Amino acid sequence: MECNNLNEMRAQWRRQQDELERHRHRELTIQRRLQAIRDQMANEGTADTPTANLQKELNSLREERAEIQQEVLTLSQIAARTTRVLAVMSLADAMEAIEAAKNDTGPDSRHKWEVARNRLLDGLPERLAVLIDDEGLRRLAKRTGISHTYVSRLLRGQRPTDAPLEALFTGYPDAFPDIPRMLKAFPQTAPHAGRPLKKLNEIDESLGAMDMATLAKRPQYRLDDSGKTKRIAGALDALVAPFSGAGVDYLLRIEADWLAPEIRPGDVVLVSVNALPHPDSILLVEDGKNGSSLRRLITDAEGRTIYASNCPDRYPALSPSDARMTGVVVGMLRAVK
């Protein structure tokens, strides 16, 4: 396949997406200004009889909004057609690269597998965009177990590691038929386990200095064995100061033994919603039946990605189609017994 043609189309698609984003941002700005004017008139008691200047501004904003909405509709249709053509081309390109690598057993074979992986990842955003256009972001996240935030980062071109790629294949085997062969022949080159859990007495200085103003903004919750969460008001601020630079989004006191004895009831875990999951990562997952729980991301004996507990009899493993990942545990505070 001609890489130049594919790259040119990919650049064109990116320009279309950027233009759409600019139009949507402008439309949102207009909506906010319209709402501000309506609130002003309501406060002044002039909602039925706006001043001439306000009425003129309202009319101008509404006309501009209508024009932008029409442009967004036209651009969306053009971008959707480009996306589908590009998705087909990128799939063919990835499969071509995989076939070339598979048939080469010489000294350059590893390099060819690396090229194949890069071509697959280059085409991931547009292939995800087609699925989101067909099914919506929420359904895609539910079927794959990948959080909305992480999917959005993939759409912007972030390179995933093996675990999310396996989850995409599990949820959409027809859309990503090239993933299993590539992963088997050329697994990820990223560190295997990602960031390890850190106990309070093992904290690395690189996690950052104390910043109580920042820590005070970190929400704090507890999670019981029924999968329900409840907010805790300011009980742990003094404990989490060493983690202020670790990308922690909130704190969670664990009240169940999903991963005991590694994480026991009473321990506090530090959760990031944007951290990259890796094999053996500890995840916070949510399924519709049992609510939230802690699980470990592993591959079972049949090569499937699962969310496992340390007590499989009480807490059976979940698949990415059963539950969605809502956070990655990046640290832990051990409860004192």
Characterize the structure shown.
- This protein has an 8-stranded mixed sheet with strand order 2-1-3-4-8-5-6-7.
- Helix 1 (3-44) packs antiparallel against helix 2 (52-102), helix 3 (109-122) runs antiparallel to helix 8 and helix 4 (124-135) packs across helix 5.
- 46% of the residues lie in helices and 15% in strands.
- The chain is flat and about 75 Å long.
- The chain has 2 domains: 3-185, no CATH class; 200-333, Ribbon (Umud Fragment, subunit A).
- Mean pLDDT is 77; it is low at 189-217.
- It has 337 residues and is an alpha+beta fold.
Radius of gyration over all CA atoms, rounded: 24 Å
Count of discrete structural domains: 2
The biggest beta sheet, please? 8 strands, mixed
Mean pLDDT score: 77
SSE ordering:
HHHHHHHHHEEEEEEEE
- Spatial gap, N to C terminus: 63 Å
Poorly predicted runs: 189-217
| Widest sheet, order of strands | 2-1-3-4-8-5-6-7
Q: What fraction strand?
A: 5-15%
Molecular shape:
flat
Number of helices: 9
Question: Helical amount among residues, as a percent range?
Answer: 40-55%
Given the helix and strand composition, which structural class is it?
alpha+beta
Number of strands: 8
